[in-house]
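Figure 6 in text form: structure in, sequence out.
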């Protein structure tokens, strides 16, 4: 279809290319109407010279097939006229576009110029209305037809040829609401099919006919329409039963009853029509054959008569079941029961007849567990053939679940009094007792049973509010975790439970659960990644509707010793550390730190020294990891110690890790404090020798020898003290700071001066005053840069500074002026507090330092001591030295000074030691993470 349409369009396009001009004219025009000027409209006259235009003539060419000369006329000068009234429906009956082609010859006198093809399009106007082929139509719907049933009606026809004027829309119009709608569908050929569709099912007994109009409207402007009247007849189907006026008829007769008189006249009504409403009567198969012998039934009228030999004396009650059937195909029927009571003077007990709503057998019926209170359970009918008081009956039912309600004379219904519970009572037995008013009273008891059918009304219940399980890590998959117990007292599918796991945050769980509630792992667990899992168990039963419940489950993963400890300090292996020994302070060197990812006893760590401590010079606190000197260090023990440490956990099996520390120990007796010690030792030896010599002299009894020896000893002692004074050059400066232009390293020299005897008495007072002055105002100038005195002490891989209180002069270097400077005491209160692990990096005044445990703040007062060891150190990465007296020692990187430094003043009479305990920082630093150098001050910028 689409290909054909495209072909037509291409043809029309190619055809239109050859048209010289197109005129449009609406149909229904007046005869001899002017259309246009061909010479002007086609612009052909413009191509002719003006002096020759009067020679141009136009002639309409004649065609053999079509006689169009009767429609159009062209004058010699090109005027174009239509001479007849045009009708598009007559000219182009089956075309959507109506046009005619006119060939015009253009001549210059007798000379042919060209042929002009003129196209005249006749435009359609809406001059026809839609017309149905018939004015009315009758349709038949059956009341058995389903929703959506459709019957066709004829289409309306519009003779207009244009698409707009011939396009028809349909509408259903009715004064009353009708169960029908209009449906229009397009056929394959492009035409339309119109039908009436049933929207709702019909009931002939309610409405047997309908009428409405179908309006067909075209698309013209203004539009026109046509009307079709539709009548619908509803056909009857056999959908109604014959109905009796009563379900049960109760009739009493006595021995004097006339045989030819009908006992009862039954009338069953059927709402259907025709054969579907015709009713016939007959005894049902439930009527016994013996009863049929005593009664006659008229099939057409429904009358019942007694037979001639009716035994009034044998039976008192007869049950007749009569069925009424209609004449439909298939026939429908209904049934009624007639109770014929024969009246006599004897007293008979009442008869109880119970009919349950549900299926029953052997006096047992069934009810659902969710049956509502007040629901109808059974119908109880009481019969007593006696008359008078003997026939009056009263019935009772004593039970907590059922109740007997009176419906009239000798009629009752049993209703539910309280809800049944299958889980508590699956069978319910009750008894109906009926008693008449005769003398004596006759009583009838009948017992019935009701089976309660279970429904899913109980939610599964867990025996705990929360389940907690413990499991070790690293167990294989499918390892049992625990058992979740849920119960459901419902029977059948309502008691069949299924279990599943889910977490509130929809995370994947490494557990699975069976339908018996056993939880196991799906993969090995790692306590270090997650030590506790909290999720929920969902239990569902299989009843209808499915009921569910949830419970929280907590699984705690217990630790196994599966992680070896590792050192966090030293952070590299091996690690280098330089240290000086001072015996008068704390012997702690450094603190090793390790960490274990396990928990509890598996993470309880112990430290040991494995190798390198053959001299037993070091000791290790096995719990804190603090490395200390175990004793005093001698001069010959200075050197490099390669110590191998091990840290062990307390798990089973025990796991451990080792690390090595290269410790360079500096211990020299050439320092100033060692000189005092040597002097004291020498004095002690002299005194011992003197003592021995006195004893020897006393034994020998030589008084002269004793006196001589005493004089010699005294002179020897004075010579040694004089020699001691000469070893110290009092002219040396305390600090010498040299600046080299080749690099930025610092060189600090130290030479403690001797104090003159005349200033000895005022030394303590002078130092105290200087100390207070230095704390208030002090600046140090190194390499031409001013450093604030409150810059904390730090040790880096490039330089270490230890500053002591002493007046000093800076010597001129390379022609620079000498500036006086003083060293202030470092205020320990400016440091940050130690963290819990006794080691932290702290940013203070623009620098970083690491603080070790076991360090103490400086003492505010000077102390005196009889003996001590003293070392002064200053170190830098490239060029540094420390000096005491007349000896030099090359400095080292990563030097740690763990003890306070002392300032000593000496004279011939005594040795006074002024001790300032400085706050000590970690002097070591990791090669992988060096600390920053001293920050620049404002003067540097």
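Output sequence:
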């Amino acid at each position: 279809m689409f290909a054909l349409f495209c072909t037509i369009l291409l043809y029309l396009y190619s055809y239109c290319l050859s048209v010289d001009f197109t005129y449009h004219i609406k149909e229904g025009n007046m005869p001899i109407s002017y259309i246009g000027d061909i010479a002007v409209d086609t612009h052909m006259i413009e191509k002719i010279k003006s002096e020759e235009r009067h020679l141009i003539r136009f002639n309409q060419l004649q065609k053999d097939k079509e006689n169009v000369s009767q429609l159009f006329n062209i004058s010699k000068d090109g005027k174009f006229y239509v001479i007849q009234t045009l009708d598009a429906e007559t000219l182009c009956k089956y075309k959507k576009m109506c046009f005619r082609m006119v060939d015009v010859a253009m001549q210059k006198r007798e000379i042919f110029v060209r042929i002009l093809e003129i196209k005249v399009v006749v435009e359609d106007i809406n001059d026809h209305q839609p017309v149905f082929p018939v004015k009315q139509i009758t349709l038949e719907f059956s009341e058995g037809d389903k929703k959506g049933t459709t019957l066709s009606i004829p289409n309306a026809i519009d003779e207009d040829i244009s698409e707009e004027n011939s396009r028809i829309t349909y509408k259903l119009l009715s004064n009353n609401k009708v169960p029908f709608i209009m449906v229009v569908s397009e056929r394959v050929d492009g035409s339309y099919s119109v039908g009436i569709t049933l929207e709702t099912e019909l009931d002939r007994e309610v409405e047997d006919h309908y009428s409405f109009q179908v309006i067909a409207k075209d698309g013209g402007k203004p539009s026109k329409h046509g009307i079709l009247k539709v009548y619908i007849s509803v056909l009857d189907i056999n959908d109604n039963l014959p109905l009796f006026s009563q379900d049960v008829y109760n009739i009493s007769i006595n021995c004097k009853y006339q045989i030819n008189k009908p006992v009862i006249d039954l009338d069953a009504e059927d709402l259907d029509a025709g054969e579907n409403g015709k009713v016939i009567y007959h005894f049902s198969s439930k009527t016994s054959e013996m009863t049929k012998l005593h009664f006659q039934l008229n099939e057409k009228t429904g009358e019942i008569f007694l037979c001639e030999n009716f035994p009034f004396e044998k039976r008192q009650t007869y049950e007749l079941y009569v069925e009424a059937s209609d004449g439909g195909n298939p026939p429908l029927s209904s049934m009624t029961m007639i109770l014929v009571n024969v009246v006599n003077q004897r007293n008979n007990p009442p008869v109880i007849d119970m009919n349950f709503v549900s299926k029953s057998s052997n006096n047992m019926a069934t009810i659902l567990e969710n049956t509502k209170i007040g629901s109808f359970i059974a119908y109880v009918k009481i019969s007593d053939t006696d008359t008078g008081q003997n026939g009056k009956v009263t019935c009772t039912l004593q039970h907590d679940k059922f109740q007997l309600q009176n419906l009239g004379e000798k009629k009752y219904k049993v209703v539910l009094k309280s809800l049944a519970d299958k889980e508590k009572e699956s069978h319910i037995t009750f008894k109906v007792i009926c008693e008449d008013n005769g003398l004596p009273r006759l009583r009838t008891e009948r017992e019935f049973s009701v089976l309660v059918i279970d429904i899913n009304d109980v939610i599964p219940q867990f025996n705990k509010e929360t389940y907690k399980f413990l499991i070790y890590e690293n167990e294989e998959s499918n390892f049992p975790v625990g058992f979740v117990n849920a119960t459901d007292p419902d029977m059948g599918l309502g008691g069949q439970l299924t279990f599943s796991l889910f977490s509130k945050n929809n995370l994947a769980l490494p557990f699975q659960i069976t339908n018996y509630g056993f939880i196991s792992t799906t993969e090995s667990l790692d306590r270090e990644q997650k030590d506790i899992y909290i999720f929920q168990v969902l239990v569902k039963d299989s009843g209808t509707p499915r009921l569910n419940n949830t419970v929280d489950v907590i699984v705690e993963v217990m630790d196994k010793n599966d992680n070896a400890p590792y050192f966090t300090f030293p952070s590299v292996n091996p690690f280098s550390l330089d240290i000086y020994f001072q015996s008068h302070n704390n012997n702690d060197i450094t603190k090793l730190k390790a960490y274990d990812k396990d928990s509890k006893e598996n993470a309880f760590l112990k430290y040991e020294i494995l190798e390198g401590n053959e001299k037993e010079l070091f000791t290790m606190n096995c719990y804190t990891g603090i490395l200390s000197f175990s004793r005093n260090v001698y001069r010959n023990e200075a050197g490099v110690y390669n110590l191998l440490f091990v840290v062990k956990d307390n798990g089973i099996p025990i796991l451990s890790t080792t690390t090595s520390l290269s410790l360079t120990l500096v211990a020299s007796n050439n320092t100033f404090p060692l000189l005092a010690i040597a002097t004291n030792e020498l004095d002690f030896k002299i005194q011992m020798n003197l003592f021995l010599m006195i004893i020897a002299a006393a034994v020998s009894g030589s008084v002269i020898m004793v006196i001589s020896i005493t004089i010699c000893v005294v002179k020897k002692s004075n010579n040694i003290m004089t020699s001691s004074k000469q070893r110290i050059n009092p002219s040396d400066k305390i600090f010498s700071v040299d600046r080299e232009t080749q690099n930025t390293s610092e060189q600090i020299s130290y030479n403690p001066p001797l104090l003159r005897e005349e200033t000895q008495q005022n030394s303590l007072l002078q130092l105290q005053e200087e100390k207070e002055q230095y704390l208030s105002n002090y600046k140090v100038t190194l390499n031409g840069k001013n450093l604030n005195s409150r810059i904390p002490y730090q040790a880096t891989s490039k330089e270490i500074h230890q500053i002591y209180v002493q007046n000093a002069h800076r010597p001129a270097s390379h022609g620079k002026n000498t500036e006086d400077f003083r060293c202030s005491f470092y205020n320990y209160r400016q440091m940050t507090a130690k963290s819990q692990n006794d080691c932290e990096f702290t940013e203070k005044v623009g620098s970083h330092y690491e603080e070790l445990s076991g360090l103490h703040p400086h003492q505010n007062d000077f102390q005196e001591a009889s003996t001590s060891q003293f070392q002064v150190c200053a170190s830098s990465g490239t060029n540094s030295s420390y000096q005491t007296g007349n000896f030099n020692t090359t400095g080292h990187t990563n030097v740690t000074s763990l003890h306070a430094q002392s300032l000593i003043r000496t004279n011939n009479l005594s040795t006074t030691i002024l001790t300032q305990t400085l706050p000590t920082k970690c002097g070591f630093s990791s090669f992988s993470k060096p600390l920053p150098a001293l920050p620049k001050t404002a003067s540097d910028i």
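Caption detail: Confidence is low (pLDDT under 50) at residues 10-17, 670-679, 720-768, 770-941.
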